[in-house]
Amino acid sequence: MDTATDTPIDPPGGTAVDVGSLRERALATLVTARDRTTLLTSCVDGPELTSQVSPLMSPLVWDLAHIGNQEEQWLLRAVAGQEAIRPEIDSLYDAFEHPRSERPELPLLSPAEARRYAADVRGRALDVLESTAFHGTRLTEAGFAFGMIAQHEQQHDETMLITHQLRRGPRVLSAPDPDPVPLYTGPAEVLVPGGPFTMGTSTEPWALDNERPAHRREVAPFFIDTTPVTNGAYQAFIDDGGYDDPRWWTPQGWDHIRRHSVTAPLFWRRDGAQWLRRRFGVIEVVPADEPVVHVCWYEADAWARWAGRRLPTEAEWEKAARYDPAGDRSARYPWGDADPGPDHANLGQRHLRPAPAGSYPAGESPLGVRQLIGDVWEWTSSDFTPYPGFRAFPYKEYSEVFFGPEYKVLRGGSFAVDAVACRGTFRNWDYPIRRQIFSGFRTARTAEAS
Question: Nearest 10 degrees: CA dihedral of 248, 252, 253, 254?
Answer without folding.
Answer: 70
